[in-house]
């Protein structure tokens, strides 16, 4: 895959899947904006890792749950690199709570980051992305499993899948494709946080291969979606989950 001359924004790129995506896009030749909200040190580490193999990257702070900061993220990207060709809406939050324990704050926090952040980043892409661009949003395979305590998180990701479908024809006239990746259980801090070894082991047994996914598994699928070979795929959700559901 050759992404030479292209510029990619990866939200939530300081760790986990976002980190791996940023590195692999840079390895393919893209200049990468490593977006972070609060983990400046981790974001700088990603930039350093990219620069060590000759890639170009910049860490840009923005809390994408705030529209003004999404706008600033795109403005600074354009100032630094002059264009935007790829947007990866990876930033997100996941807290597991039984419905009886969900507060208004928990509900609003999830929708602000997972849904509003994705939506208004797509809005900025409509304004500023080059023709022939690519957007990849992130959902979850958990939404098809009906697992307890995931109600708010799964609801946000259902919304992301629907807006991906709805926006496909709006982006089509600009020759921009928009798709969604729905990972299964991936061994990241976001997934492992607060889970017992027994619970993690039970998740391993839910897919066809008996292991957790790795960030590389998701980044590899994303590479296909941003390549020229996927230009006829748009408005779709791709479940990258090892046969979880």
The geometry reads as: globular
Number of domains: 1
Under CATH, the homologous superfamily reads: NAD(P)-binding Rossmann-like Domain
Tell me the number of helical segments per DSSP (H or I, 4 or more residues long): 8
**CATH-defined topology:** Rossmann fold
- Kindly report how far apart the N and C termini lie: 29 Å
Quickly name the level 1 CATH class.
Alpha Beta
InterPro entries: KR_dom (IPR057326), NAD(P)-bd_dom_sf (IPR036291), SDR_fam (IPR002347)
Keywords: Oxidoreductase
Domain Ketoreductase: 6-184
Pfam families: adh_short_C2
Question: In words, what does this structure look like?
Answer:
Keywords: Oxidoreductase. Pfam families: adh_short_C2 (PF13561). Belongs to the short-chain dehydrogenases/reductases (SDR) family. This is 3-ketoacyl-ACP reductase. The chain is α/β, with parallel strands linked by helices and 245 residues long. It has a single domain (7-240), classed as Rossmann fold (3-Layer(aba) Sandwich), CATH 3.40.50.720. 44% of the residues lie in helices and 14% in strands. Strands 3-2-1-4-5-6-7 form a seven-stranded parallel sheet, with helices on both faces. Strand 4 (86-89), helix 4 and strand 5 (134-138) form a beta-alpha-beta unit. The protein starts with 6 loop residues before the first strand and ends in a 5-residue tail after the last strand.
């Amino acid at each position: 895959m050759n992404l030479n001359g292209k510029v990619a924004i990866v939200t939530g790129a300081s760790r986990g899947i976002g980190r791996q995506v940023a590195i692999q896009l840079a390895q393919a030749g893209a200049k990468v904006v490593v977006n972070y909200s609060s983990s400046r040190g981790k974001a700088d580490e990603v930039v350093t890792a990219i620069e060590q193999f000759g890639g170009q990257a910049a860490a840009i702070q923005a809390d994408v749950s705030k529209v003004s900061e999404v706008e600033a993220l795109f403005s600074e990207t354009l100032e630094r690199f002059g264009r935007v060709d790829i947007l990866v809406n990876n930033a997100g939050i996941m807290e597991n709570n039984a419905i009886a324990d969900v507060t208004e704050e928990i509900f609003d926090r999830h929708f602000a980051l997972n849904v509003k952040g994705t939506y208004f980043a797509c809005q900025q892409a409509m304004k500023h992305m080059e023709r022939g661009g690519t957007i990849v949003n992130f959902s979850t395979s958990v939404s098809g499993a009906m697992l307890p305590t995931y109600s708010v998180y799964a609801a946000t990701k259902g919304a992301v899948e629907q807006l991906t479908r709805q926006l496909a024809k709006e982006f089509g006239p600009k020759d921009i494709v928009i798709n969604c990746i729905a990972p299964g259980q991936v061994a990241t801090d976001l997934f492992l946080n607060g889970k017992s070894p027994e619970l993690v082991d039970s998740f391993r047994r839910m897919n066809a291969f008996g292991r957790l996914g790795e960030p590389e598994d998701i980044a590899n699928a994303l590479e296909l979606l941003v390549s020229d070979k996927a230009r006829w795929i748009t408005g779709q959700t791709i479940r990258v989950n090892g046969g979880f559901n």
